[in-house]
Each structure stands twice: as C-alpha cells, then as structure tokens.
Design goal:
By secondary structure, the chain is α/β, with parallel strands linked by helices. The chain has a domain of about 240 residues: Crotonobetainyl-coa:carnitine coa-transferase, domain 1 (Rossmann fold), CATH 3.40.50.10540. The protein has 18 helices and 13 strands. The strands form 4 sheets. It has a 6-stranded parallel sheet with strand order 5-2-1-6-7-8, sandwiched between helices. The chain has a 3-stranded antiparallel sheet with strand order 9-10-11, with helices on one face. Strands 3-4 form a two-stranded antiparallel ribbon. A hairpin with a 5-residue loop joins strand 9 and strand 10. Helix 1 packs across helix 8. The protein is elongated and about 85 Å long. The two termini are about 20 Å apart. The relative contact order is 0.15. The mean pLDDT is about 95.
Length: about 400
C-alpha cells in the first residue's frame, strides 16, 4: 500500500473489499474510495461485474465502468469455490469493510458468513445490500431497482395525472441506496472507534427510496389518503412546473418559499394575485395552479431562455434550465465548483465525469484512477500483499478460481 496524505481523504488507510455487483453496492464502494479508502474490487474471474457491460462503450471500453469502478483495484476471484472462499476469508481478515449483494444465505453457504469473518476480524463491518433485506417473505426473491421504484410509491407519483405510472430512466433506487450505504458504513466506523467492534449492516433497496419519496406513508396512515400523480406540478406549492421558452428550451420553477412566489408573480406582471387570501400558503396556491401556470407560462413563452434566466436572477426568483447532459458540462456553476472533473484514463485518454459528492476543506479526497481491467491487480493483492506464491496463483488460475 502506498503512503496516504490528507489530500486522499478522511478514509485514507481504510481497506474495503467490494464483492458486490451492478450498482448500489459498487456505488457505496466508489464513494468510500473517492474519500481515500483503498478499495479492492472482487469479481468473478471470467464474467466480472455486470456493470462492465452496462451503458454505452467507446473502443470497447465501458464508460460507466470507468466511473463507478474508479479508485478500485481489481481482483478476479470466485468465492463459490472452497479455495476461492478461503482466499477471500484471508483477505477479509485484512479489511475494515466488506460490501456484498448476494442473495441472503449465499455467503453462509460458502462458509463466509459474518460469524466466520468476524471471528478472524472482530472489527470488520459487513454491508449486505439486497432488494428486500436479509429476512422476511421477500428476502429470497430476485430484485432490482425497478421493482422497488414501483413498490416505494415513486412510480405511482411520477407522470401525468391521466397517464401511466412512470419509472425513472436511470438507476434511481440503486443510486439512493448507494449513497445511504456510504452513510451507514460511516456510522458503523464511528461506532467501532468507540468500542472496537464491527457489525453487520442490512441495507435493502426499498427503505432509502421510501424515505426519499416523502410523506405518503404517514398521509395514508393518518388521513387515509393516497397521494396522486400531479405531473410536473406539486400539491405543496404553485407555480411549480416546467415552462417552454420562445426559443424552444424549457425551464423549471419552484415556489416552495412564499417570498419566491411573490417575486415570481410580480416579475410576470400579475402582482394583484399576491393579495388574494389563497396566495398566502403553498398548499392553497396549488389549488389555483391553472391560473398561476397560465400567467407564468405566457410570460416565459414570449422570451428566450437566456432572457428568462437573467430576469429571474435579477428579481431574486428561483428558476433552473432543463439541461441536456452536454449543456450541464458547460454550466458556469458546475465549472466553478468543479462538479465535473477531468480524469486521465490509460485506455481512452482524458475524460470528464462527475466529481466527488461533496467538498471537504482539510481532507478533500480525489479520483486517483479510473475503472480498471478485470484482474488487473490480482497478482499484487493476492501475491505481494496476501502472500500467495506464484505456484498457488497459477493453480487458482488454472482451476478458474482466480483471474
């Protein structure tokens, strides 16, 4: 292991084994690695992580993989073989965190349950990511983010009122769970600082997105009301919608703060509605969304996007452009905060990708390298660091256990 510095991040010196696949678990490991953790990606030696085949590619290189596998060394190791399980057990004894997303009972079947791993390493934190958790009637079901996006209430609330439930065009549930998982691991590490003991973390994909969806559960429980789809409008405030500009672009407006609502209606030339009794709260304004959208939409429709953005900024009102990704890359605020950063990749050269999730003053973290080839670090990790001989590694490779 190389010498770490404050620049590497607050988790420098921490070792994480990422034995998970697809998105939620790997995203947890990505966040931990971004902030300094040494992440070792454990993949099937022949198939690798399915993320390697997700999304678009350039020169046969998966672009999504370059991002989600950044800051991860890669080791090909099949845990379902007893020899591979034994190697993993030894590796876990050197780790602080293990992340896995196998079906409940799989690690135990391989002789790698938390009772076994923690006997070797009492401080180990094991994050277990599944669709529905480690217990309950759905525990053994196959699950993906799409299923919990439907079950959580998200799809029910998304789309036009007279249209079908709408699923997101990206891995929303997995992404929310990934960021939640990073927080959960941080809490477990904090607890370990106090008592020296690790623990298991049972993270299902459903819980985080249920929280993100909002108060629907408590509304149903206390009022017997199921929230309904409102399209781009909100039941909590108005005007809140997307509006088309004269040059064919779209902008989004929210008036969650009453003061912003007053500024918006003054700007668009209808200050008279501010004195209406119903204008006083967001919920009451939402009942008059047709009227307010008409005023705002007509004013915006006569102006270009640049004119609208400038006028709203001068009025201190809230507006945001509906960007395509290519436009986001060149936004001045995105550039100022370096929300997109340039990283050098050995296969494709310079590439831009999302930067770290937040900015820390003393221990900022950084992207040290992009996603690597399958098994690129097997010799270094299992041989140089774990102590397997060249003959042992050759035998494991011959049997398809290592790669």
């Amino acid at each position: 292991m190389s010498v770490t510095t404050a620049e590497d991040g607050p988790l420098a010196g921490l070792r994480v084994l990422d034995a998970s696949t697809i998105l939620a678990g790997p995203l947890v490991a990505q966040v931990l690695g971004d902030f300094g953790a040494e992440v070792i990606k454990i993949e099937h030696p022949a198939r690798g992580d399915g993320m390697r085949g997700h999304g678009l590619a350039k020169d046969d290189q998966s672009l999504w993989w370059k991002m989600v596998a950044r800051n991860k060394r890669t080791v090909g190791l099949y845990l379902g073989d007893p020899a591979g399980a034994e190697v993993f057990r030894k590796l876990a004894a050197t780790a602080d965190v293990v992340i896995e997303n196998f079906r409940p009972g799989t690690l135990e079947r391989w002789g790698l349950g938390y009772d076994v791993l923690s006997a070797d390493n009492p401080g180990l934190i094991l994050l277990r990511v599944t669709g529905f958790g480690q217990s309950g009637p759905y525990a053994s079901r196959p699950a993906f983010g799409t299923l919990v996006e439907a079950m959580s209430g998200f799809a029910h609330l998304t789309g036009e009122p007279d249209g079908p439930p709408t699923l997101p065009a990206f891995g929303l549930a997995d992404s929310i769970a990934g960021m939640a998982g990073a927080a959960a691991v941080s809490m477990a590490l904090f607890q370990r600082e106090k008592d020296g003991h690790g623990q298991e973390i049972d993270l299902d994909l459903l819980s985080p997105i249920m929280t993100a969806v909002g108060p629907g559960v408590i509304y149903a429980d206390q009022l017997g009301i199921d929230q309904q789809r409102t399209g781009n409008r909100s039941a909590n405030n108005a005007p809140r919608n997307t509006y088309r500009t004269s040059d064919g672009h779209w902008v989004a407006i929210s008036t969650s703060a009453d003061s912003i609502a007053r500024r918006v209606l003054t700007l668009v030339g209808h200050p008279e509605v501010i004195d209406e009794p119903w204008f006083a709260t967001g919920r009451q304004r939402a009942a008059h969304a047709d009227l307010l959208d008409g005023y705002v939409g007509a004013w915006i429709g006569e102006r270009t996007r640049e004119e609208v953005l400038r006028a709203f900024a001068e009025a201190g009102a809230a507006v945001g452009p509906v960007y395509r990704p290519s436009e986001l890359l060149d936004d001045p605020q995105v550039r100022a905060l370096e929300l997109v950063t340039t990283v050098d990749d050995p296969d494709l050269g310079e590439m831009r990708m999302q930067n770290l999730l937040w900015r820390m003053g003393r221990t900022p973290g950084r992207i040290r390298f992009t996603g690597r080839a399958l098994g690129a670090d097997t010799d270094a990790v299992l041989g140089d660091e774990l102590g397997l001989s060249a003959e042992e590694l050759a035998d494991l490779r011959e049997r398809g256990v290592a790669g």
